[in-house]
Amino acid sequence: MNTQEKRPIYVIGHKNPDTDSICSAISYAHLKNKISDNNYVAMRAGQVSNETNFVLETFGMDSPQLITDVATQVKDLSIKKPQGLSYNTSLKTAWTLMRDTKDATMPVIGEDGALEGIIALKDIATANMDIYETRILSLSKTPYKNILETIDGTMVVGDPEGYVESGKLLIGAANPDLLEEYVEDGDILVMGNRYDAQLCGIEMNAGCIIVCMGAAVSKTIQKMAAQNNCRIISTPHDTFMVARLICQSTPVGYFMIKDKLFTFKTEDFVNDIKTAVAKIRHREFPILDSDGNYCGMLSRRSLIDMNKKKVIMVDHNEKSQAVDGIDDAEILEVIDHHKIGTIETIAPVYFRNQPVGCTATIVYQMYCENDVEIEPNIAGLLCSAIISDTLMFRSPTCTPLDKMAAEALANIAKIDIALHAAEMFRAGSALQNKTEEEIFYQDFKKFNTEEVSFGVGQVSSMDKQELESLQPKIEQYMLKSLEKTGLNMLFFLLTDIIEESSITIFVGEQAPEVIKSAFGVEVADNQHSTYLKGVVSRKKQLIPKLMAALQQ
Is the whole model's pTM more than 0.90, yes or no? Predict the structure, then answer.
């Protein structure tokens, strides 16, 4: 099977993705496709930063597609696609098809692919058992083709392409004198080979005469029928069988359910439709795509045998940082370099967590372990991720392994680390055209203790003046936005890459005391920022000290 035909396995980084999150997802999906026959697809859970865009453009890679929720959707379920019926399909044809395919419900589809209605076995049964209307063929505008097919007939006189426009259905068993009192314009007469009865029907302007038992129709009758626009059909069946079968030629469109159809879209989430399915006791429901075209039928049983989305998490293992719906997905692997978080899985998973400065370093190792050649563009992505996460080896999170990996990757990608880093950081620090909100959430993560929840954001720049001018704007935004976030405290690092220090902004009732306790700095009343020399890593230098201070 071609990988494009297989259900995708999503490789996804955290929300508010940074360069490591995006580049590691792309590179790991590429590796997995090299060493397995599954279909791994890199995705992103948030907007791509300027720095990451620069890296992707530099190495000619497209940004992963955005996915905001990995909960199970209707399109993830087992959707049957029974043969769609047209409006004019006969009841007999529909019944035969449903009997052979064991489908209890079938869709009626228009020429444009749109769903016009549905017909169920009970609707066909109702049509056969509860309809006593002798004009049913004309009321339903039954095609003569349906009649020919249903009674195995042959059109002797007339156009087989027409429709029954008027009249009722009669058995022409009476003598001509009595027939004259009953036959009206457009009626359909079912009879044998009686010449006088056939002639009477034609003279009374019958719309069609059905001659049973395969009896021959004289040339005189044929000529008179043609002159009076009366069709003649020959059938091998007897009168009783024709009377029994002919109403099964009526089109399904006349009996289908077309109002208040309970349909679902392929993009609907299963959790959102379960209530409706429980209340509506249908066995199957039509499924439509985003344009309203018919896609298939969803059975109630499909909700039991759900195919959850399969996910590999990279560069995170905290539920709060994961894409929405992660609880409803099947997590296959976690590749990360952060502290162990709150993700729970139903089944055992491949979990690789190493104390290095960047997830891309782990991915590089896995390429080497699997003896897979690293292509120059992939090497460029991985090297850029390491440079970004370690602040070009200045971060205390950086390990010798990170530096070794970056240098090896730079050699493959044929880039100068110092020059590439300068261009990357310059692109990433282009903050002047962004709103305070965009800057604040550019790289933002939430954290929780037993009693307190807080969020930490960070931007890095090689321009000290840019950071200093940004400080009052971010501070005011945080003061206004704290309540809206639902968190107890907010922290933000304005990191100067050159000086390897950060201006730290903090808001929240406990925030000043926490900063004071964590870093031993003096914090005056109404003060919301402080300078932390040597602090550049949120993960290794800020978060552990904040957590320790909160636990005291």
Answer: no
